[in-house]
Amino acid sequence: MQNIALVVGASGIIGSNLCQELLANNWLTYGLARNPGSAASGVRPVAADLLDPAGLQAALAEVQPTHVFITSWLRQDTEAENIRVNGGMVRNLLDALSPKGTVRHVALVTGLKHYLGPFDAYAKSGTLPATPLRETQPRLDLENFYYAQEDEVYAAAARDGFTWSIHRPHTIIGKAVGNQMNMGTTLAVYATICKETGRKFQFPGSAAQWNGLSDVTDARIIAKQLVWAATTEAARNEAFNIVNGDVFRWSWLWGRLAEWFGVEAAGFDGTVRPLEAELANDADLWRDIAHRHGLVESDLHRLASAWHTDLDLGRPLEVMTDMAKSRKLGFREYQATDDSFFDLFEQLRADRLIP
User: Which residues belong to any copy of the PRISE-like Rossmann-fold domain (predicted)?
Assistant: First the structure.
């Protein structure tokens, strides 16, 4: 039977890379997004709003997926609203697909906030989690929209009989425009502004992040794990961490990033210096840079998500992720982290998103 994929969030940083991986493996691939026009060539676009159940059912009327990959979310002002909106989107999607009876597997992408807590509550549980983070660690006693999304998948699986997998990446490194969490492109924009203005490329985060061990997730490697879990019997009904497979310190990587752009690096100097404040007044400057260099995106805020980069780099603990669970089951992919950034920068330059 042919594998038919429905990628939810096909225009995003994970979804777009997943579509390319699926197509390379000869999957019939549908890409759902509110505006799927930027989906990869070969993807069958589905324009739909997950918060509109009637419109969603109409958009999916002719789509009969065997595998569903949920890679999107909508940021809200409070965690209660994150739970209501993002849990509701998963429920609406799976309710719309239920009558078809074609779905064999559903994969949900969440992240390390499963272990760390929501964006504004990394340490509110009273204790910081033990690292490396492992899938066996229990849920925190905190509101968390990731838990709500998981519970919607579990309930629908019990109702409809499909298998599932949960995927928990660290910070995603890959190309996307208009993405809500995009550290790689944010740092590329920041370095470009530093080069244009003569500013130092200042590390914005905490001492714990500067000196501690960390890891990240290349968008290409999570795409591979999603396809692996969807087609591997031993991976059914399991949650998996997913990172590149190496560890690094920002004190080592920061200078390498600066060297790629030809700017002067400045490390942690005893003070957290949020990037959101650093870039707060640079929208007009970026518009001018884009005009002078013929770039295709002049809106700074569609490229940079400084708020999220600040949260990741400002954490009060080192964060690294255990990958033993999927390794034992046969997932062997590896990606060098410095190459993740350099490959992204090359792509951004080739696509005229940075000069």
Answer: 66-355
